[in-house]
Fold this protein.
Amino acid sequence: MKIISTQKHNILIVLLVMAFFTGATIQFGEGSIPIGILMFLITLGLTTRFKLQGAYITKSSKFYIVLGIFILFADILYNLKAMNQLGTLDTMALFMGISFIAYGTGKYRRIGEFGIYMSGTFILLFLLFYIILPSLKNNFIHDFDHYFVLLPSLFIATSLTNMDLHIVGIETVHFNGFEDATVVIGGPCSGLYSMMLLLGIIVGYVKMENITENKNIYLLMFAAIVIAYFSNLIRVSILYIVGYYYGIEKMMFVHVYIGWFIFIIISFGMMMALNRIK
């Protein structure tokens, strides 16, 4: 019981670390740099809360440590050279690098294994939907944004209020409320990031705990996709309402925080469900 309790504690800390680290990258890119720095410091503080179990301390593996360091430096150097802002893919790449280092140290081997599978799942799905499919001239992302995000969220928002919103493009909405503005609903607003992150959490936990034969895992994966999808519709609808009645500046402020906050709630609920399945 002690090992399981410690493992649950460590996984919850990992999710908090990932949440605050993701929040920090969002703040650096779209929000407040001081808040981003604060979130990054909280991330570092949380890493000191890991509990160790002597049974999991193994001989260090230089290969995994070197690989992890290489991934970290490669991603950082690439973004510095390209003058890019850190995005969700960068967050997962950095998280994978840290996970390889943890896997190689021995003391955090299982936590590292969870992080590798979690971030690896996200990266593979990201490459599929945002790199491979577009390279094949597939319009899945744009069609998904239009038919499964923009239209349903617009229906929800206009059903709850008397907003004057007009679709002017596949992913574009015109606001005629507090101010006249046009907003693009696409990219992270599609909700696919949340789905991929939640699937990554499930895959990482399943691999770490070796519970692949439990059929309830597939049901939980389906539930994660459904929950992430409808949560995103609510999030986008809230953004419409805030932008229409209070202006685009306040909408962007809410945009920086609301997705991150919802993800924390859903991911913790998912962890509770995983613990019950096990």
In short: The first strand starts at residue 165 and ends at 167. Residues 216-246 form the longest helix (31 residues). The chain is about 75% helix and 5% strand.
